[in-house]
Amino acid sequence: MIFGAVGIIFQTVLSVCGLYKIKSAPVVMSWDMCLGIGCYGVSFILWIWLLRVYPVTIVFPLALSLNLVATQMMGYWCLGEKFDFLQVMALICVAIAIILLGVSGRKMI
Q1: Is the pLDDT of residue 1 over 60?
Q2: Per-position DSSP letters for the chain, written without gaps between them
Q3: How high is the pLDDT of residue 106?
Q4: Closest Cα to residue 55, out of 95, 109, 7, 106?
Q5: What contacts 8, CB < 8 A, 6 or more positions away?
Q6: DSSP string for 42-65
């Protein structure tokens, strides 16, 4: 139901934030690295739970496309990366695909 969609979003945010913290850690043994590994670990456990409860044909494409969007946004906001026109158009296409998948899988999630 609604928890499936929220779970996918939460898993994506945890995954992207965990990877960002791991990549931005100044040294291997730091709080940033520990926080990143912790977020990524919780994200993995949530991912396994989502795959057990909901159909893979809905969960996997939604999570993958949300990861693409979240990674682009994190790169723009936190790392100062620039967007060009093609990247914006690609993100719009991904957003439309997410909406279509969500509407088609509404009965399952």
Answers
A1: no
A2: -HHHHHHHHHHHHHHHHHHHHHHH-SSSSSHHHHHHHHHHHHHHHHHHHHHHHS-HHHHHHHHHHHHHHHHHHHHHHHH-PPP-HHHHHHHHHHHHHHHHHHHHTTTT-
A3: 57
A4: 109
A5: 50, 59, 62, 63, 66, 109
A6: HHHHHHHHHHHHS-HHHHHHHHHH
| Length of the chain (residues) | 109
Q: How many other C-beta atoms lie within 10 A of the C-beta of residue 18?
A: 20
Closest of 60, 51, 46 to residue 14, by C-alpha? 46
Nearest to 39 by CA among 59, 22, 56, 64: 22
Residue 41 CA to residue 18 CA, distance in Å, equals: 8
- The one-letter amino acid at 64: L
Mean pLDDT of 70-84: 83
Neighbours of 52 (CB within 10 A): 9
Which residue is associated with the tokens 């279509």? 100
Query: pLDDT value at position 86?
Result: 92
